[in-house]
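My current task is to audit a protein record that another person submitted. Thanks in advance; the entry in question is below:
***
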Amino acid sequence: MRHRPLSSPWLPFGVPGNSGAQTCLVLFHHAGGGATFFRGWPDHELLKGVDVYRMEMPGRGSRFRDPPCSNFTDLLIELAPVLTDLADRYADVVLFGHSLGSLLAFEAALHLQEIKRQPQALIVSARRAPHLPTPQPWRHRMTDRALTEELRRLGGTQEEVLANEELLQLFLPMIRTDFQLTESYRPCRPTKILSPVLALRGKADAEVSEADIEAWEEIAADRFECRSYDGDHFYLSEPTNLHQLLNDLTRFRTGLCLPFPAGGPI
C-alpha cells in the first residue's frame, strides 16, 4: 500500500526509515516534559523490529513557538489525523503514556476505537485512572514561587532551570498549562477501552498510589495488568527500570495479546 507522506509537529523526529515494521509504539510525555524524555527508546535493544514515535505537545522542544494548549478537545483535533495515519500505516499500534501522557494515550485509544482501528494495547504509567479527580490544591493555580518549589519537590526538572529566573519565565506558563490539562481533566464519555490495558507506577511515587493505578481496571473491557518498579514518579529515567519494564512487556506479550513480532521482543 502506498502511503502519503506523514508529517506533523507532533512528530519532531519524523518517521522511521523503511524498516518494514508492522508494529509502532507511540509515546506521550509527562506534564512539563517533551519528546526527548524518551530519548533512549527508539534504539533500545528490546525494541528492535518496532517503529517508535515520540510525540511532542505544543509549547516545548521543537514546538516551543506553538502556544501550549489548555484543553483536550483542541489537542485531540490536532492529534487525531496523526493517529489515523499511523493506524493506516501499521498493522498494530501500541500506545504508551507517562503521567499526563497517560491521559493522551487513553484519549488516543478512544479515537482509534471510534474509527474502528482498535489499538493492540494501551500502556499507562504514573497517572491515576482518568475517572479519579486530581486532589486539591491544584498546581496550575499556585503562585510562581509556590509552583517552582513544588517542581523542585517533585523532581524531573533540572535545577538549572528552577534557579534561573529568565528560564523560569519561559518554562512556567507551559508547565502551568500542562498541569491545568491533567488536573481539570474529566472523561467526556463513559467508554471502556477494548484493548488490553497495562498500568505502571514507581513504588515510591508520592503522587500516584497503588490504588490509583489499580483503578485503571475500571476502564478496561478486556485484560488488565498492573506492575510497580523501584523509584518515584520518574522511575522511567533509570536505565535499569526501563530495561526491566521492556523485559516485562516481553513476558506480558502472550498474556496481554501484545502483537510484537516473535523474533523482536518489546
In short: The first strand starts at residue 23 and ends at 28.
